[in-house]
Give the backbone structure.
Amino acid sequence: MKEKVAIIDSLGAHGSSHHFYLYGQSKGLADNNIDVTLYTNSVTQNPNYKGVRFFTFYKNIFKSKSIILAGIKYIFGSILSLLHAKFSGVKICHFHLFHVNILVLFDFILTKILRMRVVYTIHDVVSFENKKSNNRWSNWIYKKSDKILTHNSFSKNIFDNYYTAPKHGVDIIPHGNYIPFLNIQSDKNKSRDRLSIPKDRTVLLFFGMIKKVKGLEILLESLKDVAQKNPDVLLLIGGRVWENDFSIYQEIIDKHNLSEFCLIHNNFIPHEDVEHYYASSDLVVLPYKRIYQSGVLMMSLSYEKAVLVSDLEPLTELVKDNDTGFVFKSEDHYSLSTKLNIILSDMDNLEKIRKKGSELVKTKYDWLEIGKQTKKSYESIL
């Protein structure tokens, strides 16, 4: 008899590509003979996978202007999801966490009252944006849960330093690739026409939500030297700004007269347009200052793009310099500009590295294998 698992996630397709992660996880588990039910929000589409049931009990929670009303809608969605899971014979509820708050506490207590086991995949072990998430609530919930999953050894080590592990421990389950869910646009010129990018420019892409920890200012500071040596270079910035406005970045652009070398789309990028940003680019740059794992990195490699990343451990676990990508010293714009100039001086090598990186994510980060590893984690708590 198949084991029944509920994946419960209110975020889904709201404002990001997180739903692709949920799809991959669900399909990987179903392909490993797990009976999966995915509970998410009403803006997320049913992937229609064999062996995966799909329900959207979290209705319009992100459309509410009132935090209280949004919270009530969330609680209602959780009650329906967890009761449905219980009466469907589910034994394990798998949640995804970016930070801990009172709603997470509510889910945990209700799941335990209903006598189902709790598994958490923790995406941000100690939240960069919500400092209050590192508190006694977090430690109590994690300790009382049945299993914690992190994406890499770096995150596991951070967890061990901050929190008490549950009885059944902490397992490392990698972030899977996005290949099954992407429309890889092979016509670069068509995509550049769509985004009004000249065909003769060499395009660097900075993609995703713009947060202070992602180091866009470091990339902009490096661009002056890069543009002097590579006058055809163009930095394409795609993604909305988180909390702080874009003015701190615009000041750098103005200071170094970089306007002709930047194309700025600092707004939410619709899912149907994402492929054109990647197709238009020659190199994706991730100048991050802090990170636990990167969906943008996995997305870039899944789109078969070469990547340049800062030398943070969660990134270099996957990207090896001049092998599966390129690496520079974090928070050092001189190191970044030097590396960019080297890369752009040898486009044949760039193409070779691009192919090696895309091959790596196809083989090592396949959802079938990740589903197999996750199934083992489930078996350890039953």
